[in-house]
Amino acid sequence: MSQGKLTGAAVAEHNSKNSCWVIVHGKAYDVTEFLPEHPGGQKIILKYADTLDKFLDPSKHLGQVDMATVEQEEKAFDPEEEGRLERVKRMPPLAACYNLMDFEAVARQVMKKTAWAYYSSGADDEITMRENHAAFHKIWFRPRILVDVEHIDMSTTMLGTKCDIPFYVTATALGKLGHAEGEVVLTRAARRHNVVQMIPTLASCSFDEIVDAKEGDQVQWLQLYVNKDRAITKKIVEHAEKRGCKGLFITVDAPQLGRREKDMRSKFSDAGSDVQSGDGSVDRSQGAARAISSFIDPALSWKDIPWFKSITRMPIILKGVQCVEDVLRAVEAGVDGVVLSNHGGRQLETAPSGIEVLAEVMPALRERGWDKRIEVFVDGGVRRATDILKALCLGAKGVGIGRPFLYAMSAYGLEGVDRAMQLLKDEMEMNMRLIGATRIEDLNPRLLDTRALLAGHAGVIPSDTLGLGAYDPLEAPRFNEKPKL
Ligand SMILES: Cc1cc2nc3c(=O)[nH]c(=O)nc-3n(C[C@H](O)[C@H](O)[C@H](O)COP(=O)(O)O)c2cc1C
């Protein structure tokens, strides 16, 4: 202690799973009991700093720390970071972004390396990630002409909530990697455009901060990673319902997190320097995703569904369903919806795109007269309103959009996300006119040519960028540099 304050050395002694102290904004906290809920290291806990102050039992508030005694990490000169800062100064104006891909192109240049790596990465060779968007290009329209399209209404309902346009902001973890304010930026943008936001379990802002940021009758859903400790899961679900969430999206495609090599390669230095060191429970070379996800229960199964139904009245939706059989099983299990999704290509490599699964699922549901028993959503690779229209024509109730809003937020903040959503609305209105549909109810499979999609993957080999880049090509015989005398 120095002048009644703790020293840096005293805090540093508590650096294990059994006794773990952290310093946040000059105060020390004992977070040992907090760790199972928020595993993943000190820097992750930092993102929950305000939560700590509010919710950690007062007995765990250890008091002020004499910051002069805390060893500071020295920042080495980083040419890459210097280059990035220089690019930030030369960023294109927001008005120069005309579509969702433009935000990605800008974000790639101006985001911090670790943040870009975490947001942009997909599993393994990123074939599924690229296919998610490419699959939409296998569907063509069969537009109708001479329909009176003066007035277009693109509003719809999802799980009983009226929305301006049939997309929602899907759950994406760690919003503060991209923007200092994190997920609340998405909350505000969703409000402006009257669309639903799905709150991620692993948000950087606390759940309550995100709920507090909503206005009026704005609707939010909760994305749930199921904890091995079901008491924690129950607490999260009950709290979400109490705070007004209108849907529980249980992620079912991530019993183990996929290998996202861009993320791993960027060596997630943020993932904790002291906490849990030595016990091997967090491997810091594994990237952000793995560092924060060790609590997820791989034993989650169909047997758990009745329990979820017993603890909440929120509609239950399975997020990450990837084949017809499981959609049918979900209906039988009595859930309210499914999201056909492969987690943005971040989980199983060469899992099919959601839109491809949708084309198989809807006829199977219609055949059984089950298509009104659940709401079917799709996410992955949605970048254009034509993508949204294709999903709706096939029978989806709505689509989730992930990365584009993260990129817009990271590069341009709230105004960026606002513009991204407005661009989608403008594209949607125009394209509904051009295919001859004035209302969402008008969208149907007859407006599509799905022959190329339904032909499946026979004979089509996705481009193997990593393999080709690493391949040392054979060479033809070389000519002499000079003519032989
Ligand atoms: C950076 C990032 C973080 C994500 N975090 C989560 C998560 O915590 N929980 C979850 O269920 N899905 C998560 N997802 C998956 C998304 O909810 C969604 O399935 C995917 O992003 C859709 O693909 P898109 O990014 O091409 O729109 C994440 C996706 C990204 C890109």
Walkthrough of the structure:
The strands form four sheets. Strands 7-14-13-12-11-10-9-8 form an eight-stranded parallel sheet. With 485 residues, the protein is α/β, with parallel strands linked by helices. Helices cover 37% and strands 12% of the residues. The protein starts with 7 loop residues before the first helix and ends in a 15-residue tail after the last helix. The structure holds flavin mononucleotide (FMN). Residues 118-119, 132, 170-173, 200, 202, 223, 251, 319, 341, 343-344, 346, 379-382, 400-403 line the site of flavin mononucleotide.
Q: What's the CATH first level of the largest domain? A: Alpha Beta
How many domains? The number is 2
Q: Number of DSSP strands?
A: 15
Major beta sheet, specifics? 8 strands, parallel
CATH superfamily of the largest domain: Aldolase class I
Number of helices: 19
Structural class from helices and strands? alpha/beta
Spans of at least 5 consecutive residues with low confidence: 36-43, 271-283
User: How would you write the strand order of the largest sheet?
Assistant: 7-14-13-12-11-10-9-8
What is the beta-strand fraction?
A: 5-15%
- What does the average pLDDT come to? 89
Kindly summarize this structure in a few lines.
By secondary structure, the protein is of the alpha/beta class. Helices cover 37% and strands 12% of the residues. The chain folds into two domains: 8-69, Roll (Flavocytochrome B2, Chain A, domain 1); 113-255 and 300-454, Aldolase class I (TIM Barrel), CATH 3.20.20.
